[in-house]
Specification:
838 residues, alpha+beta, Penicillin binding protein transpeptidase fold, OB fold (Dihydrolipoamide Acetyltransferase, E2P), 6-stranded antiparallel sheet, 5-stranded mixed sheet, 24 strands, 14% strand, disordered C terminus, serine-type D-Ala-D-Ala carboxypeptidase activity
Length: 838
């Protein structure tokens, strides 16, 4: 029987293929297949749309690893103590370990109780936020939160605060990524350091100072709970304007902490019973020190590094710089007090100058306008007050602390300057005035109309130690120490005579104090100069006498003999100013600042070495690297407690030789005579080596004094901002020098009496003080401020030849005539007593 033939493999494959094709064809035409295909396409579109709208341009989470928040610039004084901070966002960075555990729990209770359980997103909370958003859509109201702490970090640091559903989605995606990148502790550290909490405080440490004036670890539970409510809206829970609302919200947080087991019932009850206890909004402690000095530092930093983050990584308000300055708190306080006292003395009895400022008061809300004015006083017991209303014979006052007081009619009877009438009748509601306590009431005070500036500098380094640019920087920000261009008057004369000493004259050169006129051309005609007070010339005298007595005629004659081009060249290289070669500039007609004049005198005191004055020693970035000045080097062993047997460390100095060292010493030696017997004789009883020069310009509109010791040099002027006559009795020796004396009495209190050291080559010669001729056999009487014989400093080969004194022994020499020749004092004895000077 024959068998069936075996099947053809090709035929079997073809049949299977046909069946599959039929199945696909039927599937393509089926309803469910079309639905599945549509859903797949929609899914792909949705994924693409989600990527395009949410994920496409998400910032990298890795930036959070190296995130550096905007930090204020912190300024320190000469001793390293903090004195100021420049901040638009006050922030203090702490590590997570530095935050009190109870404070962390307060923020978790208020913001995200399940923070340590979720992975960036709290889905129940997010669902509630979605529902809230849907119900408020189109109402103009904003939906409530739903964000975890991780989402808030993503929002604040990476994507911004735009109100939209897409932002919420981006926030959620980033929160997941952040949780994969950082630990929970790192996330909390970022959050607690950067969250905005009102009063310009960013981060919890800054808020602790802003609201309670305490370090974070000094807060109690109630205060921690209050800070934890602020992320929801600091203005909503302001402790002054919304105290009741803030109390309710704080107690809610305490309840949440109790419910979550973070605190005990006893802790809860104790904290719940406490008042808010917040302090009034005020200027931080670090922003109330330094005044004009720190503002000048800020100006220099802004010029170097810029203002905000867009200007670079080291900007003043974002870079977190650490700035070491030469600010000496003690000297600043003394200079500030002396200048203020001098201004008040001059201005007293001249009447009331009107209110400091006038503001509008609405609905009896006087505190906020007063705080917003940023006006405050710290002179003696004076305080700024706002006039809130009148009650019969008294004005009602309000103060920054929220307290009130009364200004009776009898306590405001001073005349109104330039208008007549008394101050009580001129005061208006809304005036901000100066008052001082008077029994149970207050008395009116007048802010001086006259102003001025005071600068103190260390000659050896050129560092500015103190700077007061007016009565109070919170009343007038204009810094007269560096910005007010004034005529220095006779304080320019030591520099003029320095040019003469550089060009062949000596301290003993004879100059005629007599009429001096110059022809200035056909247009200007002849100019004749005069001495101060129009006094007649006194005939021939030494250069020293001319400087000590501040004789104008001798100065212009010397300048003409030296050549004004040489004189103004010396003035320029001393940093005072760039003037045309006119003789009037030799008498101080050119404008300059008190800061420049003090620096020029510091160069004289430092044997001619110097440069531009400095307020900033060095600047460090937030990590401690010195970024300015360039190529800065620390002085190793400069702060060692005792000598270690090695060579003495030498601080690096950037000073250069500006003026011949011997010329500088000669001028210092001459101007010591100004203090001993000249126009600054009021300083003589300070009883220490001191040089200086007074100045009084035309009018007089300004009076000056500049001078000091080897330790530091100070200078000041007094004058109206719009120059006008100070009165005929006003002189540098009677107004400016006493202010410096008040400063110097305490400033030099514990300092050694150091002589000015002469440079190599200087020759000390005994001369007759009146004639300038050398003497023999007669010695200076150091106890007499006006001895007939003095030691004078000469350059080599410039001193007069020694000869017998023809006029007979000076009175001071009477006792020495009887001394045996072997016992007579020698020049070398004098030199050794002066510390070995040449």
């Amino acid at each position: 029987m024959a068998s069936d033939p075996s099947p053809n493999p090709t035929t079997a494959i073809r049949r299977t293929t046909d069946r599959l094709r039929g199945g696909f064809a039927r599937a393509r035409t089926s309803r469910w297949a079309k639905v599945a295909l549509a859903l797949g396409v929609l899914g792909l579109v949705a994924i693409f749309a989600f990527w395009f709208a949410v994920i496409r341009d998400l910032p990298s989470v890795d930036t959070l690893r190296t995130y550096e928040p905007p930090l204020p610039t912190n300024v320190r004084g000469i001793d390293g103590a903090p004195i100021h901070s420049y901040a638009r966002e006050r922030r203090v960075e702490l590590s997570y370990a530095e935050y009190p555990p109870l404070l962390v729990k307060a923020f978790l209770a208020a913001e995200d109780k399940s923070f340590f359980e979720h992975h960036g997103v709290d889905f129940p909370g997010l669902a509630g936020a979605v529902v809230d958003y849907a119900t408020k859509l189109g109402t103009g109201k904003r939906a409530k939160g739903g964000s975890t702490i991780t989402q808030q970090v993503a929002k604040n640091l990476l994507i911004g605060n735009a109100y939209s559903p897409s932002r919420k989605l981006r926030e959620a995606v980033l929160a997941y990524k952040i949780e994969d990148t950082l630990t929970k502790q790192q996330i909390l550290e970022l959050y607690l350091n950067q969250i905005a909490l009102g009063r310009n405080a960013f981060g919890v440490e800054a808020a602790s100072h802003a609201y309670f004036d305490k370090e974070l670890d000094q807060l109690d539970l109630a205060q921690m709970a209050y800070l934890a409510i602020l992320p929801k809206g600091p203005s909503n829970y302001d402790p002054v304007r919304n105290a009741e609302r803030a109390m309710i919200r704080r107690n809610y947080v305490l309840n949440r902490m109790l419910d979550n087991g973070f605190i005990t019932r006893a802790q809860h009850d104790q904290a719940n019973a406490e008042p808010l206890g917040a302090v009034m909004r005020r200027t931080p402690k670090f922003e109330s020190v330094g005044g004009y000095f720190v503002e000048e530092v800020r100006r220099q930093l802004m010029a170097k590094f810029g203002e905000s983050a867009k200007d670079g990584p080291y900007s003043v308000y974002s870079g977190g710089l650490w700035v070491r300055t030469s600010f000496d708190t003690r000297l600043q306080d003394l200079a500030q007090q002396a200048l203020r006292d001098g201004l008040v003395r001059f201005d007293s009895g001249r009447g009331w100058n009107g209110p400091i400022r006038h503001v509008e008061i609405e609905d009896d809300n006087w505190l906020q306008p007063l705080l917003n004015s940023n006006i405050a006083l710290d002179y003696r017991d004076w305080v700024a007050a706002i006039v809130t209303g009148k009650d019969g014979n008294a004005w009602s006052l309000g103060f920054r602390t929220g307290k009130t007081g009364t200004l009776p009619r009898y306590a405001a009877q001073m005349a109104v300057r330039g208008k007549g009438g008394n101050a009580f009748g001129a005061i208006k509601t809304g005036d901000i005035i100066a008052v001082a306590p008077d029994g149970g009431n207050f008395s009116l005070r007048a802010i001086p109309k006259v102003s001025g500036a005071f600068v103190v500098e260390e000659p050896a380094s050129g560092r500015v130690l103190a700077m007061q640019g007016g009565f109070d920087d919170r009343l007038q920000a204009f810094n007269r120490a560096t910005q007010a261009m004034r005529q220095p008057g006779s304080t320019i004369k030591p520099i003029v005579y320095s040019a003469a000493l550089d060009n062949g004259m000596t301290p003993a050169s004879i100059i005629v104090d007599g009429p001096f006129c110059v022809y200035q051309g056909a247009r200007l005609g002849q100019k004749c100069f005069r001495n101060f007070g129009n006094s007649r010339g006194a005939g021939p005298h030494t250069m020293r006498w001319g400087i000590e007595q501040s004789r104008n005629l001798m100065t212009v004659r010397t300048a003409a003999q030296t050549g004004m081009p040489k004189v103004v060249a010396t003035i320029k290289k001393m940093g005072v100013g760039d003037y045309a070669p006119y003789l009037s500039y030799a008498l101080g007609a050119g404008e300059t600042t008190v800061g420049r004049m003090v620096n020029a005198y510091s160069i004289l005191a430092n044997n001619g070495k110097g440069g531009p004055p400095s307020l900033i020693d060095f600047v460090q970035d937030r990590h401690g690297k010195v970024i300015w000045p360039e190529n800065w080097r620390a002085c190793d062993r400069c702060n060692a407690p005792d000598w270690d047997g090695k060579p003495m460390p030498r601080p690096i100095t950037r000073q250069r030789q500006v003026l011949d060292a011997m010329t500088a010493y000669q001028m210092v030696h001459i101007t010591e005579g100004v203090v001993q017997r000249g126009t600054a004789v009021t300083l003589r009883d300070l009883d220490r080596p001191m040089f200086g020069k007074t100045g009084t310009n035309n009018g007089p509109t300004d009076v000056w004094f500049v001078g000091g010791t080897p330790q530091f040099v100070g200078g000041l002027y007094i004058g109206f901002d719009t120059p006008k006559n100070l009165g005929g009795a006003a002189q540098g020796g009677t107004l400016a020098a006493p202010i410096f004396k008040q400063f110097a009495v305490k400033a030099y209190e514990d300092l050694p009496k150091l002589p000015f050291r002469a440079p190599a080559g200087i020759r000390m010669v005994r001369i007759d003080r009146a004639s300038g001729r050398p003497v023999y056999g007669t010695w200076p009487n150091t106890d007499d401020p006006k001895p007939a014989v003095i030691w004078e400093a000469f350059k080599p080969e410039s001193e007069p030849r020694r000869a017998a004194r023809r006029a007979g022994p000076a009175p001071a020499a009477a006792a020495t005539v009887a001394v045996k020749k072997a016992e007579a004092p020698r020049d070398s004895d004098f030199l050794q007593r002066q510390g070995g000077i040449y």
